[in-house]
């Protein structure tokens, strides 16, 4: 089966299997292959496959379609063809199962810089642990930063714990691109030992390294990291404390509530907006008093964060507070309050349907349901908009039921 390797700077390399039929490639979100770069047209090109043959066609793109450096309007694809759509590089592999590991390993060692970078990308897609040592060698010994970064991303995709020690050694490299590739890879490898290793960089002399360490720990969503992040709240640099606050919110461990509330009460040392947002992510009723108080903060950004956070607490006490926030002088606060009220309204409707189905006489809103997963469907507008009187009428009806 043929496949298409899609590489865009700043994004993970993707592998798309090509079956009989047509796929459209371009910047439009509904495309089979949605590209991220602004130099690609909405519908840039298409690939049509039938049997063992695949043809590529330019769809009147603004910047043209290039295959192996030559501008084309159409071409039958051959194994290894390199397609350029905007700044996205797409590589056509005629038979996914026949990608020769030995050939790629040789290319990683002896090819020119672009070939070595591509080989590292493709080796990561193979998903076999037999290429780990070769990729680690490329990371340590290759002279090209892009090849090192590609090898690092590939190691992250493979998820082999043997790479963790070497990757940790490059966490404070001066090459920013490589440093962020290392960070992405370590998030994928994050067991407790990796978290311990990343946490050591919270004491690094370079503030940017400490910020990145806090970010990586948050992205692991592993509660083992919370103790290190709580210690980072004492960092001398405001930006590091901010990163630690955000990371604690990403992890969402209710045991950190005391640290976050303490941070909320120290606005001179902590970014109050991010503290409120992180408290909201804990989704526990114990944050209710401080979130309600934040609705009256002098900063509209803090009030907006509080209104959004209260929408995650499915307790009836939040409704009157959110209705009052619909009269806020700031449009962003009113919008956040309206969306939070809509989340609550949908929550009540779901509860009523479940009650009717079960035939049990239970309360519509139960504090015990706090902590259940977030709504899967995004809320984009409220049933009653930002009209406080309509929301108040609705709430009066709910209380009488």
Structural features, described:
This protein is α+β, with helices and mostly antiparallel strands. It folds into four domains: 91 residues, Tumour Suppressor Smad4 (Sandwich); 90 residues, Leucine-rich Repeat Variant; 78 residues, Alpha Horseshoe (Leucine-rich Repeat Variant), CATH 1.25.10.10; 82 residues, Leucine-rich Repeat Variant. The chain has 17 helices and eleven strands. Strands 2-1-11-10-7-8 form a six-stranded antiparallel β-sheet, covered by helices on one side. Strands 4-3-5-6-9 form a five-stranded mixed β-sheet, with no helix packed on it. A hairpin with a 2-residue loop joins strand 5 and strand 6. Helix 3 runs antiparallel to helix 4, helix 4 packs parallel to helix 6 and helix 6 packs parallel to helix 8. The longest helix is centred in the C-terminal third of the chain and has 28 residues. The protein is globular and about 70 Å long. About 4% of the residues have low confidence.
């Amino acid at each position: 089966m043929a496949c298409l390797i899609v590489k865009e700077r700043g994004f993970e390399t993707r592998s798309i299997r090509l079956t009989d039929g047509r796929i459209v490639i371009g910047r439009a979100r509904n495309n089979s292959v949605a590209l991220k770069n602004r130099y690609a047209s909405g519908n840039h090109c298409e690939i049509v496959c039938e049997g063992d043959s695949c043809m590529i066609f330019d769809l009147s793109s603004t910047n043209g379609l290039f295959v192996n450096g030559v501008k084309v309007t159409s071409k039958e694809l051959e194994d290894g063809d390199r397609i350029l759509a905007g700044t996205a590089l797409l590589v056509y592999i005629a038979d996914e199962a026949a990608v020769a590991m030995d050939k790629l390993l040789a290319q990683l060692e002896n090819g020119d810089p672009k070939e070595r970078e591509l080989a590292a990308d493709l080796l990561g897609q193979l998903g076999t642990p037999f290429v780990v040592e070769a990729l680690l060698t490329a990371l340590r010994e290759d002279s090209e930063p892009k090849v090192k970064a590609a090898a690092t991303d590939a190691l992250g995709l493979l998820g082999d714990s043997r790479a963790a020690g070497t990757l940790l050694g490059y966490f404070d490299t001066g090459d920013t691109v490589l440093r962020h590739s290392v960070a992405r890879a370590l998030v994928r490898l994050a067991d407790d030992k990796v978290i311990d290793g990343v946490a050591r960089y919270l004491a690094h002399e370079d503030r940017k390294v400490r910020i990145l360490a806090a970010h990586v720990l948050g992205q692991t969503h592993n509660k083992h990291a919370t103790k290190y992040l709580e210690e980072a709240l004492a960092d001398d640099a405001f930006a590091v404390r901010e990163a630690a606050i955000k990371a604690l919110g990403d992890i969402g461990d209710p045991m950190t509530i005391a640290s976050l509330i303490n941070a909320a009460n120290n606005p001179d040392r902590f970014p109050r907006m991010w503290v409120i947002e992180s408290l909201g992510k804990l989704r526990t009723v114990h944050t209710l008093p401080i979130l309600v108080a934040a609705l009256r903060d002098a900063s509209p950004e803090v009030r907006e964060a509080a209104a959004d956070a209260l929408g995650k607490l499915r307790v009836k006490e939040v409704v009157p507070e959110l209705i009052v926030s619909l009269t806020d002088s700031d449009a962003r606060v009113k919008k956040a309050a309206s969306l939070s009220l809509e989340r609550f309204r949908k929550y009540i409707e779901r509860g009523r349907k479940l009650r009717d189905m079960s035939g049990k006489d239970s309360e519509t809103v139960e504090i015990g349901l706090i902590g259940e997963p977030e709504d899967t469907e995004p809320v984009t507008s409220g049933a009653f908009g930002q009209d406080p009187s309509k929301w108040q009428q609705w709430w009066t009806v709910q209380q009488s039921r």
